[in-house]
Design goal:
With about 475 residues, this protein is of the alpha+beta class. It is about 35% helix and about 10% strand. About 45% of the residues are buried. Keywords: Signal, Transport.
């Protein structure tokens, strides 16, 4: 699924030509397939002979949906079968309820966030739709509250509470979550004489390992022990700051908290990795992913999406994963930021009949372990469903095993504005590539963040973190 490691994108909705073109295409997308037409299969068998599923949220499949009358809904997504777990669940749901047809409509990511809001404004938009939380403000006005008890959601899903509004309602929650880890090349690891016993848990240990994995030919680096060139900084700096108890946003949650002593310390720490400890170089390529995939860099910091990238582009790389080190053996304020893959939304502007079926489908998803297992598999992300967080099959995956011991100490700042990453990346480039002082780079980045967020309605979710009171 697109951007599931929380790569932020600006909401570039052109209010001229793009909207006009999108509006015309909406007619073709939404005018068909959302009818309550009487044609189709009628279901008269309420007792399906199936077991009730779920833990606190339960779903009894032994009932008629839409009184057994034929009904057709649409599900919109930028994903497809194999990248969006909802597709597979639609198949099982409609097999159980033959009177229900859920037509899947694929819209490209770049078009999705223009076309979807336009469709949801009317009466013929999709009854169910895929959500990415970075576009929360765009879809929230059109999304219905889930018709599921909030306490039940909190009981079954460890991150559900952060999505509750001021009325204690949710419009979506996380199905799975992800965060950053260290990926390492097992072949280079072995060649350096390292074993599993050498996997570092602190940054001091990490430096020693990275130095052993670094190779040079005279003054020229031929193999980097650790590479974060490209856009890795925009994610890793947040985790480093959280490890030291520094929030990403101000106490009121309205302003970015970038220009501070901790960010400065961590920028210097990363610079020292290259300049003092010589485990990498700003001149060693500009894409950490490609360098790792080509076997030129031994370790990188990346989120769960990296597994899919390596499988697709670099299938011959033998790699492992371990949890990102910390500055000491003590439990930090938070190990890192996390982000979640969202459960689908329900269109509040659709008919009562379609909304009722959509709500039934949502409950079917959330009670069903198969949905979460499919999400884990397709998105290489950790289950937000508590009953699956110790599942042996799931924990056999390296990324899941790395995340599991620290899942309670991961923090979600909310659907942060893209400037938090893009301006951070600019600061990194200014320091590492342009020779700017850290103080000046941080000051300029903070100024840009302040400007970009001036008209934003964003409020940080950091205060909902269980250990929020431990921050600096």
């Amino acid at each position: 699924m697109k951007a599931y490691e929380d790569v932020r994108r600006d909401m570039k909705i052109n209010k001229g030509i793009a909207v006009a073109v999108a509006a015309l295409s909406i007619v073709g997308l939404a005018a068909c397939g959302n009818s309550n037409a009487a044609s189709g299969t009628t279901d008269t068998k309420a007792d399906k002979g199936l077991d009730v599923i779920g833990n606190t949220i339960t779903y009894d499949p032994n009932h008629l949906v839409n009184d057994g009358k034929p009904i057709q809904l649409e599900y919109w997504s930028w994903g497809s079968k194999g990248t969006d777990p909802v597709y597979k669940m639609i198949e099982s749901y409609t097999k159980t309820y033959p009177n229900v047809t859920i037509k899947t409509v694929n819209v490209s990511w770049d078009d999705y966030w223009t076309k979807l809001p336009l469709a949801l404004k009317g009466k013929n938009g999709p009854a169910v739709f895929n959500i990415h939380n970075s576009y929360d403000a765009l879809i929230r006005p059109y999304a219905a509250d889930y018709d599921i008890d909030t306490k039940s959601l909190e009981s079954d899903y460890s991150t559900a509470s952060v999505h509750e509004d001021e009325n204690g309602k949710v419009k979506y929650i996380d199905s799975v979550i992800n965060t950053g880890n260290i990926y390492y090349n097992k072949t280079l690891w072995s060649e350096a004489g390292l074993t599993d016993a050498d996997i570092p848990t602190t940054w001091d240990e990490f430096i020693q390992v990275a130095q052993k994995l670094t190779k040079t030919d005279g003054s020229k680096m031929t193999q980097a022990g650790f590479n974060f060139n490209g856009d890795a900084y925009s994610a890793i700096y947040q985790g480093l700051n959280y490890q030291k108890g520094e929030l990403l946003f101000s106490e009121d949650g309205k302003k970015a908290n970038y220009n501070n002593d901790v960010t400065k310390e961590n920028m210097q720490f990363l610079k020292d990795l290259y300049d003092k400890y010589k485990v990498g170089s700003v001149d060693f390529g500009n894409d950490y992913t490609q360098s790792f995939g080509n076997g030129q860099s031994a370790m990188i910091y990346a989120w769960g999406h990296m597994e899919g990238t390596l499988k697709e582009k670099y299938p011959d790389i033998d790699y492992g994963v371990f949890a990102t080190p910390t500055f000491s053996e003590d439990t930090p304020f938070a190990y890192d930021r996390y982000n979640g893959e969202s459960t689908p939304g329900v269109n509040k502007n659709q008919s009562k009949e379609q909304q009722a079926v959509a709500q039934d489908f949502i409950k079917y998803l959330l009670a069903n372990d198969d949905y979460i297992r499919e999400a884990v598999s397709e998105l290489n992300s950790f289950p937000a469903k508590t009953s699956l967080q110790n599942d042996k099959d799931i924990l056999s995956k390296p990324v899941m095993a790395a995340i599991q011991p620290r899942v309670d100490r991961l923090i979600w700042p909310g659907p942060a504005p893209s400037t938090v990453e893009s301006s951070g990346t600019t600061a990194f480039q200014n320091v590492f590539q342009n020779g700017m002082s850290i103080d000046k780079a941080l000051k300029e980045a903070q100024g840009q963040m302040d400007t970009d967020m001036k008209s934003s309605d964003f409020t940080s979710m950091e205060s909902k973190y269980a250990y929020f009171d431990e921050h600096k």
